[in-house]
Amino acid sequence: MGNWDFGVTLTLLGMGGTLFSLWLLTLVMGLMKRLFPAPPPAGPDQGGQGA
Amino acid sequence: MSESLLGALWSLLAGFQALGPGQAVMILAGGLLIYLGVAKGYEPLLLLPIGFGAILTNLPLTGLMEPGGLLRFFYDHGVLTEVFPCLIFVGIGAMTDFGPLLHRPSILLLGAAGQFGIFLTLLMALALGFTQLEAVAVGIIGACDGPTAIYVTSKYAPHLLGPVSVAAYSYMSLVPLVQPPIMRALTTRRERAIVMKTSRQAVSRPVRVLFPIVVTVVTCLIAPKGAPLMGMIMLGNLLRESGVVGRLAASAENEIPNVVTLLLGISIGATMQAGQFLRPATLLVLGLGLLAIILDTVMGLLFGKLMCLLSRGAINPLIGAAGISAYPMAARVAQVEGMKHNKRNYLLMHAMGANTGGQIGSVMAAGIMLSLLEGLGLGR
Fold it and tell me: What is the pTM of this model?
């Protein structure tokens, strides 16, 4: 494989592959946050230590 | 008697006689690296042992890098086997809080854009006459991630390990000098002043614990050759986030990276032998390394501008520059630049998100490159 073909192949697939992989991860992270939402922050009257 | 005395005396002077001009230059270069680490504070954890290793390896007749020599032993068993960079990654994973990234997952895309300099520099290196595998090693400086650069270079172009490592670590420390002019040139005052909303919603513990496992599975399915890097960084993070292996997490965060950084640094320094280092190619590697980091910053900022546009001004493009890895300097630079235009603009958390995204992005880009090389029949 010539240098030009090698460079273009690695650049296109490398850039595209990195972008695609991280985009996929953003979807997975969003899904995880939906499946396991954080509990709502406890209000001052929910802690059992009210005045 | 007098002859044997003279012979013994001569043996004490043999080192001076054997010291060539190239070795003297490299001893000075080692001293310069130590100076930069000690006096200027540029990546002292690495530049100090690298500098000292460079001095040691260029002292004649020591045999430290000959078969059986001490530095040769560290190099063969730690660098060539890729064990040291992988162990460093366990430490990086244990030290990294991916919370800001989990707050706003879309910021991870900035971590992809911040790696484009790798590939553009690879093209430049090919155009300048480097072989294909050497170009891969030169391009990977753009990962702005020392262990990744060392891992890839030791695999494909070990003869370039010295210049690539020095470029990777010294330019990372120069990020606060390199990035601000590019940030100001590519963004408007209005863009730099954008205040990003901070989410008050916490990230749940199951998400934090699952994150390293899921990232490992997804990324290693796409790029299996990157598994040693991504697997180790995520193992370190799992130790941290699980909350049940405090001793292991503490070791991963402290003892392991401390010992390995010392051995890695001195081994890298040992590769800076005059005969291998004092060549025109070294200057080209150093120049291309700087170009790689500039291109990373440019692409990160341009992608940040695109995200700013698509989000209707909700994202400050400055955090795009933090997508280059170089953790945590790049995030701090974005914060400082943002505050210059709006004293109440606290970009740090968002920039940290992009910066940790850059860490994942740099490892992912390296993994993809390794897998592509395997596919092209160039894998090792």
Answer: 0.88
